[in-house]
Amino acid sequence: MAAIDYHEFELLLQEMKTELESNILRLSSELEAIVVDDDIDDMPDMASQQSDSMHHTALLKQQRHELEEVDHAISKLHSKTYGICEESGDAIPVARLRAEPHTRYCIESAEKLENRS
Fold it and tell me: Are the beta carbons of 42 and 115 closer than 8 angstroms?
């Protein structure tokens, strides 16, 4: 198994964090603009506004969750536990970390946890 280049993953995670924070700011601003417009009298426009609001709220929630996962991965880098599956304690393959740098689990553990849900 290939050794983890912690510097590579720190740069990658920091880049992800910056992008997510930017997305969250943009989505928050767009959501605020949608919610502020209370002067709509037309039902289709009101329905469209509600749909846009729900869509932005869902995206914002997803982006915030992903940011929490990235922050968690960064903290694991600093504590030297990055790349270790939180379920099994096994090493997470570098290829998986490159595909999903903020993953907490190896594929086997992720599948087991998914099947429990």
Answer: no
pLDDT bracket for residue 40 (50, 70, 90) = low
What is the C-alpha separation between 22 and 91, in angstroms, rounded?
Answer: 31
- Out of 3.40.50.970, 1.10.260.40, 1.20.120.910, 1.10.287.3510, the CATH code matching 6-116 is 1.20.120.910
> Taking the domains of the chain in order of start, what are their residue ranges?
6-116
Provide Rg for the chain, Cα atoms.
19
Asked if 103 contacts 97 with a C-beta cutoff of 8 angstroms, the reply is yes
* pTM assigned to the model: 0.84
